[in-house]
Amino acid sequence: MSEAQISSPSSRPASVLPAAAPRRGLGAWLAQERVFRLIPFVIVEVIFVLVIIIPFLLTVYISFLKWRANRPFEQAYLSGFENYERVLTEPGFWAALGRTFYFAGCAVTLELVIGFVLAMLVSHIVRGRGLYITVILVPMMIVPVVVGYNFTMLYIDSGPLNQLLAPFVEPFGINPRIRWLSDPVAAQWGVILADVWQWTSLTFLIFLSGFSALPKQLVNAARVMGASAWQIFWRVELPLLKPAIVIAVVIRSMEALKIFDPVVLLTAGGPGTSTQSIAFYLWEQVWVFNKFSFGAAASIVLLAIFAALIFGGIYLLVRQSAAVAPERAT
Amino acid sequence: MSAAEMTRPQADPTGRRNVWRRRLRVAARHAILIGWALIILFPIYWMIATSFKESHEWVAWPPHWLPHEPTIKNYSQIFTFDTMQKGVAREATEQPFNVWGPLGDSLLICTVSALAALLLGTFLAYSISRFNVGGGRFRHAILMIRMVPPIVIAIPLLMYYAIMIPLAAETVIGTRIILFDTRVGVSLIYIATTLPFVIWMMLTFIEEVPYTLEHAARMMGAGRMYTLRRVVLPLVASGMVVTFLFVFILNWAEFLLALTLTHPKVVTLPVLLNKFQSASEGRLFGPQAAIGTIITIPVVVLGILIQKHLIKGFSFGTIRK
């Protein structure tokens, strides 16, 4: 009854209560359910269209141009698929992409293992639990740029890392003032370890909430039936933690593939190109070399590659949260 | 099996060996956790220590674990009001670096864009939750925006801000509107990139509010906005505060888009820190450490305040505690 009254035009007195004084004109039109529900939707969609969709279409257009920033935009002319051909045949692009997957693979694996172990330890501990959780979560809140800076301070030739290692390397006649970031492999691991330092806290948090949601009865039942701690872990706890593991893998992988800040701060892609992630590579192409149309085409190619990954990731997330929901309800 | 043993199965009273093994296991757990805590705290400690070091101590060998001559010079260098740079020493390491401008830019951009995203996102989350706006898949479509790497958006945005909007505005209104290197431009993109977070976090909070409450208010004749303001908002207010702080932290830490879309007028704090990293400014570890410290401390304090809710933001509500 009242629903019909309120959503009908305002000429009628809406209700007996004073709170619903009859509204007229625009206010009443906006208060109709079919309009009201769409107001926020339209505003947000307009923002997305303005800030994301239109620039994206512009990029598609620019990717078909032959244009570098040293010439005015109006003089650029269409060149068909030339940019795409250059991107797809550019070894630097593919090398950077492969390197990004290598970084992400190494970093995410380490983060998952360390985060899992830490969460398991914390969930079995009573005293000092809150303090441990607070400390372990701190890196997540630190600005990535600051993390990059902190690690340069640790890696420099007269940093504390070299001092700690000095007693172990000096007997072999090695100068302890090692320039870690000047060696390609060490620099790559420098970037990976900075990422691990920061984002293990996130996997830890996800696993911790997984552990705290474990049904205690099942674990106790298994123990009563004589299962060893090892069996309980592999046969009871791990299968129950599967949703948390999937979520951690998907979320961390998607984030790790974007890696940019630590690369800029630690190595600026060097030495050579050994630490260029795909984000850094594209950034350098556009902002340093001004290859705008090349960058535009590369962005589109990259977006196509990522779209597949994103769809896969979201599919996994949705399936897992659907699997989790009924369990939580009981 | 008694209930007491079910709840505390470890409490096995037989034999001292078991007691000792248990103690050993507990000690080992603490040892590993303390080890990791040290790994976490050490880089932060090192930055704070460096921020109090004199210039010759920054890269001394062997490194000084505590500043030998503690000084606040690094802080007075970055917090100087002395924009005319008088009293500047000859050495490059003693230049003043004004952090007030970037601090103001960062605070303004982060606060305004977080507030705007919060209002829009809460409203939309309400609409999604109650009316299923956009269909069942809309939430996942929103999720995709967050997963797109920012570099893919950065290149289009640069061209859009620098070329298309000025050209379009000139032809339509006759004046050039420039979004590149303005606070409005940066705020706008921050709103768009953080909206997915707001929507997902607020969805989990709003869906905890029973619909019957609103229905009752509506039955009694309250208008739409009245119900929203007086019934729903008070119940999700704490959630909104958490979401605001979370989004603020995200914006505060954002680097790539700020680096891309500003130069040289608008400078956010991460961009300022990065400036020192390049060769042109020299590696001024002390002032850098001071800037790093002042960027870090407030955010860590805020983060600890909303610690319990962080998981909602980072996992997009796929996990609930």
Topology of this protein?
The complex is a heterodimer of chains A (330) and B (321).
Chain A: H1 2-7, H2 25-31, H3 33-36, H4 39-63, E1 65-66, E2 77-78, H5 82-88, H6 91-123, H7 129-141, H8 144-155, H9 160-169, H10 184-212, H11 216-224, H12 229-240, H13 242-256, H14 261-266, H15 278-288, H16 292-329
Antiparallel strand pairs in A: 1-2
Helix pairs in contact in A: 4-16, 5-16, 6-10, 6-13, 6-15, 7-10, 8-10, 10-13, 11-12, 13-16, 15-16
Chain B: H1 3-7, H2 16-51, H3 73-78, H4 100-131, H5 138-147, H6 150-172, H7 183-206, H8 211-219, H9 224-253, H10 256-261, H11 269-277, H12 285-305, H13 310-314
Helix pairs in contact in B: 2-12, 4-7, 4-9, 5-7, 7-9, 8-9, 9-12, 11-12
Write a short abstract of this structure.
The complex is a heterodimer of chains A (330) and B (321). By secondary structure, chain A is mainly α. Chain A has helices spanning 2-7, 25-31, 33-36, 39-63, 82-88, 91-123, 129-141, 144-155, 160-169, 184-212, 216-224, 229-240, 242-256, 261-266, 278-288, 292-329, and strands at residues 65-66, 77-78.
Structure in words:
- The complex is a heterodimer of chains A (330) and B (321).
- Chain A is mainly alpha-helical and 330 residues long.
- Chain A folds into two domains: 1-37, no CATH class; 92-329, MetI-like fold, CATH 1.10.3720.
- Chain A is 72% helix and 1% strand.
- Chain A has a two-stranded antiparallel ribbon.
- In chain A, helix 6 crosses helix 15, helix 11 packs antiparallel against helix 12 and helix 15 (278-288) packs antiparallel against helix 16.
- Chain A is flat, with a radius of gyration of 28 Å.
- With 321 residues, chain B is mostly helical.
- Helices cover 67% and strands 0% of the residues of chain B.
- The two termini of chain B are 30 Å apart.
- Mean pLDDT of chain B is 81; it is low at 1-9.
- At the A-B interface, helix 1, helix 4, helix 6, helix 7 and helix 8 of A face helix 2, helix 4, helix 5, helix 6 and helix 7 of B.
